[in-house]
């Protein structure tokens, strides 16, 4: 697939939608009817400061500004989704796929998030902590989005139990990137939910991609488990991932995090996360972080403010990070 092939999906899909659903048109009896696309998105202005860096007074930037359009192509069983990241205009395309829906599932063809774990498939607007954990490199590889074919859905098991399932076959090179490896990557996740009180998920993947820094092909097999428990005002989240690398050299690594969140008032949460990545055979440096923070959510406006302080437990010098982020969902 050529590098700009995913961009060519959005144009024809939206053009077809607009041509077939002109304003004020009256559908003939028995004909398919088209509705305007549903527009949504969010904005996340961001500030970071490293207390140990005497030469830096902090940094303001617009971290994310995403706009999403989704609609049906004449029937709820056939639809499309396109999302753009306008804060990074050089490569703005995030998701772009067509979907066939039925029996509680959607078959996606295009560019989408791969199914592995909980932290990365879920929307970043729902994450309790600003930054992703160190589990990311050992779960999805390089990019949470890729180009391919995927099946996603849920099955109602009754008595508040739900089965989540996801399976995807993708190029393995990440979003908006040409496929340069001879094999395809496979991602799969199965999860079990009981209302809002319990979530347990198991994931597995085969990952092969060309590293941008060294131009070396890396191949590995990865497994993971994710857990979420909610009891009263307290939530506990955790994930563990392990990778077995066979190319360019044999090595293993694993990573995990645990997060505790407590609601202490209307819309106010305090939280803490411990995370660690442990390589073997000297493949990468050992990473350990402790993050403490607070969130305030104003539900009527769908707005949130997050404050995090991250302590690097492996640094010889002061490499702490203070981060402040606001969020508005529209």
TrEMBL record:
<dbReference type="Pfam" id="PF07396">
    <property type="entry name" value="Porin_O_P"/>
</dbReference>
<dbReference type="InterPro" id="IPR023614">
    <property type="entry name" value="Porin_dom_sf"/>
</dbReference>
<feature type="signal peptide">
    <location>
        <begin position="1"/>
        <end position="27"/>
    </location>
</feature>
<dbReference type="InterPro" id="IPR010870">
    <property type="entry name" value="Porin_O/P"/>
</dbReference>
<protein>
    <recommendedName>
        <fullName>Phosphate-selective porin O and P</fullName>
    </recommendedName>
</protein>
<keyword id="KW-0732">Signal</keyword>
């Amino acid at each position: 697939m050529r590098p700009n092939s995913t961009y060519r999906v959005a144009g024809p899909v939206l053009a077809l939608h607009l041509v077939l659903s002109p304003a004020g048109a009256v559908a003939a009896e028995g004909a398919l009817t088209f509705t305007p696309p549903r527009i949504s998105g969010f904005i996340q202005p961001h500030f970071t400061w490293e207390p140990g860096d005497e030469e830096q007074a902090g940094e303001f930037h617009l971290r994310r500004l995403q706009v999403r359009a989704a609609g049906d192509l004449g029937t709820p069983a056939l639809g499309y989704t396109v999302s753009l990241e306008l804060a990074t205009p050089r490569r703005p395309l995030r998701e772009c796929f067509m979907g066939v829906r039925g029996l509680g599932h959607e078959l996606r063809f295009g560019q989408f998030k791969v199914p592995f774990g909980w932290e990365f498939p879920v929307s970043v607007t729902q994450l309790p902590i600003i930054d992703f954990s160190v589990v990311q490199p050992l779960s999805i590889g390089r990019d949470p989005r890729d180009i391919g074919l995927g099946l996603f859905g849920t099955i109602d098991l009754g008595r508040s139990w739900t089965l989540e399932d996801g399976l995807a076959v993708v190029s393995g090179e990440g979003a908006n990137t040409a496929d340069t490896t001879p094999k395809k990557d496979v991602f799969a996740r199965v999860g079990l939910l009981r209302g809002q009180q319990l979530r347990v998920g198991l994931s597995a993947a085969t990952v092969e991609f060309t590293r941008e820094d060294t131009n070396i092909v890396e191949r590995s097999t990865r497994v993971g488990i994710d857990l979420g428990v909610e009891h009263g005002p307290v939530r506990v989240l955790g994930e563990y991932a392990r990778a077995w690398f066979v190319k360019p050299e044999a090595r293993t690594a694993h990573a995990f995090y645990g997060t505790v969140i407590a609601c202490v008032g209307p819309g106010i949460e305090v939280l803490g996360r411990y995370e660690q990545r442990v390589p073997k055979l000297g493949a990468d440096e050992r990473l350990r972080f402790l993050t403490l923070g607070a969130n305030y959510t104003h539900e009527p406006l769908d707005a949130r403010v997050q404050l995090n302080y991250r302590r690097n437990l492996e640094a010889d010098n002061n490499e702490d990070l203070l981060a402040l982020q606001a969020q508005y969902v529209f």
